[in-house]
Every structure is written in C-alpha cells, then in structure tokens.
Amino acid sequence: MATAAKTAPAKKAKSKDLIFQWEGKDRGGRIVRGEMSGGGEAMISASLRRQGIMATKIKKRRSSGGSAIKSAEIAVFTRQFAAMLKAGVPLLQSFDIVGRGSANPRMTKMLADIRADIETGSSLSEAFRKYPLLFDSLYCNLIEAGEAAGILEALLDRLAIYQEKTQELKSKIKSALTYPIAVLVVAFVVVAVIMIKVVPSFKEVFTSFGAELPGPTLVVMAMSEFFVAYWYLIFGSIGGVGYFAFQSWRRSPKIQLLVDRAMLKLPIFGVVVYKATVARWTRTLSTMFSAGVPLVEALDSVGGASGNGVFTIATEQIQRDVSSGVALTSAMQTSNLFPPMVLQMAAIGEESGALDQMLSKVADFYESEVDEAVKGLSSLMEPIIIVVLGSIIGGIVVAMYLPIFKIGQVV
Fold first, then answer.
1. Which of 91, 179, 311, 340 has the greatest count of CB atoms below 10 A from its CB?
2. What stretches of 211-339 show up as alpha helix (H) in DSSP?
3. Can you tell me the distance from the alpha carbon of 65 to that of 71, in angstroms, rounded to the nearest whole number?
4. Which class for 207: exposed (0-12), middle (13-18), buried (19 or more C-beta within 10 A)?
5. Is residue 196 within a helix (H) or strand (E), and if so which, with residue range?
6. How far apart are CA 141 and CA 147, in angstroms?
7. What does DSSP say about strands 54-62 and 18-25: parallel, antiparallel, or unpaired?
8. Any idea which fold 71-164 has?
C-alpha cells in the first residue's frame, strides 16, 4: 500500500490540523491509499495528480491528537537520526525507527510523511523544507550541503551538536527570566487576595473603634475598596493587555524589533541576552561555514538564528557588504554590535583560513559567559525579590496594624 507525501504548507497544516484520507489509482491501475495534510480537497487532488495518482475518494479527518512539536523534539530527532545513519541503518528505515520511538503522535505523523516524500523521489532537504516552522533554512541548507558532498552523517552529527548547544543556551535564558516573572506573578496574586479578603475584615474592626485612622491605613483601605469593587476589571485588563501585547508582538515585525532592542538594553538581563545572542550568531556561522556553505549563503541563515531582530538586520547589511567584496571582520565592525574580542578572533580566522574554528571558540567562550551570568543573576535576583516583596507585603501588614497599636489611646 502506497503512502503519499505531505505537500501542504506546514503553517497551514499546523493552524487547521486537517488530515485527508485518500484512495485512488496509480499509473499502473493499482489501487493505492494514504493520508496527506493540506488546506482542502482540491489541493490534495492536485498534489496526487502530480504524483501520477487519480484520486477516487478524499475524506477529511481530524488529526489523532498530540501536542505541538517543539524545538527540543527536533533536536532529539536530529541526534537519533544522526546516530542511525552513522550506524549504517538505511535512510527510510531510520525514519521508521525514530518515528515509532516518538511519544508525540504529531511527530510520528510528520516523520511518516517525510519518509513518504523521500520514497516518492524527493531529496531529504526538499522533504524537510515543507516544514519551515520546524526545520529552518539553516537546517535545510546543512542537509542539502551534506547530500551534495556525500557527508550527510557527519553534517547531521554537527547539526545535532549545534541544536543541543542552542537548546541548552535557550533553557538558561528562560530559567533566568522565568524565575523573577513567576515570583512577581505570585506576589501580585497574594497582594490581591490580601486586598480582597483580609483587609476588609480589618476594616470592619477599625470602623467599630470610632477613631481617626493613620494615613497609611487609609491608603491601604482605599486600595482594598478599589480591588473589591473592580477586581474583575483589574484582572481582565491585565489579561487583555497581556494578550494584546503578545498578539501584537507575534504579528508585527516592528514591535518585535522594538522588543528585541529593549531586551538588549535591560539593566540586568540585557547583558545575558546580548551574550547569548552573540553566542548563537557565532555558533551558527561557524557551523554553516565548517559545513562548506559559502560565506554569503551562510549569512542568510545566521541572522534569523541569532534570535534577535537587531542582529538580523545587521546581518543582512553584513551580507551585502561581504557580497560586494568587504572583509567579514570589517563588515562586522561597521555594525557596531560585536565586542572587540569577537572582531579580533574573526580577523585571525580570516587571515589563517580557520574562521569556523575561531568562531566556534568565540561561541564556547560566550556560552560559558552566559552560564556564569545566569548563575550570578540568580544569586542577585533572590535578595532583590525578597526586599521588594518584603517591602510591599510588610508595608501592608504594618499599615493594617498601626491602628491596633493605638487601641489604648482610643479606649
């Protein structure tokens, strides 16, 4: 039984998650069946005709479930795939083994579709390019270079190392940013509960005193009244603003660029984000260049892989300068984004013909710098968060107990 390839755009399939079961006849008159992702029956029928199959039945069904495929799963797949090929396992059989071992049904389905693509004559890089949200241009370019040079196993191993280092770097940045954000969210919830549930109880007691309350207590009670009266507006506004900000960032390149610029200028986290971006930039260029990809073509993937719009724009200018004959180091220096050490190492690499090795050493250095910065940041944030939360909650507690200290005067 034949299985057709997945030919619909990955973004469309992901957004609607439409899977079509089809049945038809091939050029030899044999009945074949299979599944294909796409945006509609007409698209599926046209795709099957290009494969020499006349569809007699096309039926839409929902995907069998599973969570969205994450970048960490792609990194694990790359490592497993590289290990299979290095062990001498045939290409198609490697997809079968890795697919059956995946716990995510969507991952298994995608690997089955890629296998079907290859089985019908597509190259490995062409099959991967149908999933641009999961396999970016860097990934596909390296696979294509490996296929052309006959060193696919070596390049897959190098790509697996690159992805593992990238995932490790991302996890460090997320841990540095997640901790303070999570603590602040919990602190807000605690303060809201105090304002809505605890302070009104104190207010009833203070009202029976019949005495003038201290100023801090009146301020806290006024805030409590506002929370009790408009709590749904407060939480709704915060949720709405957060959702609107996220959607605006997601859909607008201009807002993404503004956020990326702001991230680099943050007083505490900006240094960590900057070093992580430089590490990703140099690691990506080193990986591409060592794979034999020409420098100008390699720069196509480097900017986007850096994860920061400021570096993406700068890389586009660097690419134009390099394509017009300017040395890479000079083009990087003109951007005013790279520290002196990176420029010096890049210059040495250009002069000695070992640019990939020099950039790899730079990436190693900045990855270790990020590791140390994250550790220092965690140590620094803990006392700052304790002081901030202690001041807020302690201030509320003191304000509510001030009248109790004056009970003797009232009585």
1. 311
2. 215-251, 253-265, 269-290, 295-305, 309-323, 328-335
3. 18
4. exposed
5. none
6. 10
7. antiparallel
8. Receptor-associated Protein (1.20.81)
Higher pLDDT, 35 or 116: 116
* Distance between start and end Cα atoms, the chain: 92
Q: Provide the total of helices (H) and of strands (E) in the chain, helices listed first.
A: 18, 3
**Helices 71-86 and 105-119: angle between axes, nearest 10 degrees:** 50
For the chain, state the CA radius of gyration: 29
User: DSSP for 30-79?
Assistant: -EEEEEEE-S-HHHHHHHHHHTT-EEEEEEEEE----PPPPHHHHHHHHH
In angstroms, rounded to a whole number, what is the distance separating the alpha carbons of residues 74 and 135? 8
Q: What is the DSSP string of 101-122?
A: H-S-HHHHHHHHHHHHHHHTT-
- Cα gap 304→150, rounded to integer Å: 27
Q: What angle do CA 362, 381, 240 make, to 5 degrees?
A: 100
With 0-12 CB in 10 A as exposed, 13-18 as middle and 19+ as buried, what is 411? exposed
- Report the sign of the C-alpha dihedral through residues 7, 10, 14, 15, in that order: negative
- Please report how many Cα atoms fall inside a 13 Å half-sphere around the Cα of residue 103, on the Cβ side: 3
> pLDDT for 14-49, tens place per residue?
334 456 777 888 777 778 777 676 667 777 777 778
Apex 121 CA angle, 302 and 155, nearest 5: 35
pLDDT band at 365 (very low <50, low <70, confident <90, very high): very high
What is the tens place of the pLDDT at every residue in 273-330?
898 889 889 988 888 888 788 888 888 878 777 878 899 899 999 999 999 989 999 9
Check if the beta carbon of residue 176 is closer than 8 Å to that of residue 185.
Answer: no
Torsional sign, CA 78, 83, 85, 90: negative
Give pTM, 2 decimals.
0.65
What is the per-residue pLDDT for 15? 37
